[in-house]
């Protein structure tokens, strides 16, 4: 099957499935901390969690950049299960030659994690969904990876602005098997940043559609909001930010697929974070007071945008990395490095 056909098939499957699953009532229930088991079962039955896993390891062998259409669709629908994390964690386990278990997974990475052939120690902050009934895949700065048994970790519950679980995991215990991913130390964060960039791009597409439709429907002073020049200008800015986020997220995905080109990921995540801040502000400005109510669906997306822009490195983190990298190269290599990214 051709690359474009695979991408289209994945996009269509994810869009139909998530559209059915992510109704407002289901999203509100997920915000209470209830694990959406029925929703996860439907996602797993569709085979999406193993999209990145090679066929020889029981997956579908889809390329990283191609599979990101699923992650973008998850962002578009505010899917409240750890599908992006499961896809990435399963991919890393398979890459390291370790068996990929059934069920949801999450990815724990950080500078303080230490994995030896028989044990794991350290801690990882803001791990997505760690308290849920899933497996925790830890990766240390050297690229070693392991599926951590429950007895080897302790979890402190936390949440992001959107109410999604973001827990601190303390590791201290024995391991039965570890593997080597072959990734550079910075790549674990880069993978997570790319997932969030894709989710941001999807959510931006959704809030743009919602905001344009609201501006057409809402009548103020005898005419639709969309007829006012100031509103039209803001809608144009929102559309531009959405387009930029989509292109930046795709650049980051291609950077991961093509050997972990960190500059592409850094620029992509930073640009998506910028778009998230601007886009959410415009969407709420045009919606007015109704957009801030819990009954309206806009907040499911904007709260995630505000959260995702900070996860796996915000704009400051990635822009600082870019700046230091380019400054270290010096003026003679600036243009060559910039165009290579």
- State the distance separating the first and last CA atoms: 29 Å
Outline, from the CA principal axes?
globular
CATH class of the largest domain, named Mainly Alpha
Helix content: 40-55%
Domain count, please report it.
Answer: 2
Question: At the third CATH level, what is the topology name of the largest domain?
Answer: Butyryl-Coa Dehydrogenase, subunit A, domain 1
What is the CATH H-level superfamily of the largest domain?
Acyl-CoA dehydrogenase/oxidase, N-terminal domain
How does the helix and strand content classify structurally?
alpha+beta
Strand and helix order: HHHHHEEEEEEEEHEEHHHHH
Helix count, per DSSP?
11
Largest sheet: 4 strands, mixed
CATH architecture of the largest domain: Orthogonal Bundle
Give an overview in words.
- With 341 residues, this protein is an alpha+beta fold.
- It has two domains: 178 residues, Orthogonal Bundle (Butyryl-Coa Dehydrogenase, subunit A, domain 1); 153 residues, Up-down Bundle (Butyryl-CoA Dehydrogenase, subunit A, domain 3), CATH 1.20.140.
- Helix content is 53%, strand content 13%.
- The protein is built from eleven helices and ten strands.
- The protein has a four-stranded mixed beta sheet with strand order 1-4-5-8, with helices on one face. The protein has a four-stranded antiparallel beta sheet with strand order 2-3-7-6, with no helix packed on it.
- Strand 4 and strand 5 form a beta hairpin.
- Helix 6 runs antiparallel to helix 7.
- The radius of gyration is 20 Å and the shape is globular.
């Amino acid at each position: 099957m051709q690359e474009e056909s695979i991408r289209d098939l994945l996009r269509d499957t994810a869009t139909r499935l998530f559209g059915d699953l992510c109704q407002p009532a289901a999203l509100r229930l997920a915000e209470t901390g209830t694990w959406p088991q029925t929703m996860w079962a439907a996602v797993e039955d569709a085979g999406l969690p193993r999209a990145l896993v090679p066929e020889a390891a029981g997956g579908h062998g889809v390329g990283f950049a191609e599979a990101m259409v699923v992650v973008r669709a998850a962002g578009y629908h505010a899917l409240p299960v750890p599908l992006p994390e499961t896809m990435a964690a399963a991919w890393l386990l398979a890459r390291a030659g370790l068996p990929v278990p059934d069920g949801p997974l999450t990815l724990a990475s950080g500078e303080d994690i230490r994995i030896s052939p028989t044990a794991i120690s350290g801690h990882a902050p803001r791990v997505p969904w760690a308290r849920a009934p899933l497996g925790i895949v830890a990766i240390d700065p050297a690229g070693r990876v392991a599926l951590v048994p429950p007895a080897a970790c302790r979890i402190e519950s936390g949440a992001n602005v959107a109410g999604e679980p973001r827990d601190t995991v303390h590791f201290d215990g024995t391991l039965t098997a570890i593997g080597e991913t072959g990734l550079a130390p910075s790549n674990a964060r880069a993978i997570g940043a790319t997932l969030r960039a894709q989710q941001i791009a999807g959510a931006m597409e959704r809030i743009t559609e919602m905001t344009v439709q609201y501006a057409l429907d809402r009548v103020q002073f005898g005419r639709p909001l969309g007829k006012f020049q100031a509103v039209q200008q803001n809608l144009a800015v929102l559309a531009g930010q959405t387009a930029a986020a989509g292109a930046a997220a795709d650049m980051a995905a291609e950077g991961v697929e093509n050997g972990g080109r960190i500059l592409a990921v850094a620029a992509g995540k930073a640009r998506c974070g910028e778009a998230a801040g601007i886009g959410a502000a415009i969407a709420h400005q045009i919606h007015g007071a109704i957009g801030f109510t819990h009954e309206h669906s806009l907040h499911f997306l904007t709260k995630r945008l505000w959260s995702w822009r900070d996860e796996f490195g915000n704009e400051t983190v990635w822009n600082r990395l870019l700046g230091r990298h380019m400054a270290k190269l010096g003026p003679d290599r600036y243009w060559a490095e910039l165009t290579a990214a």
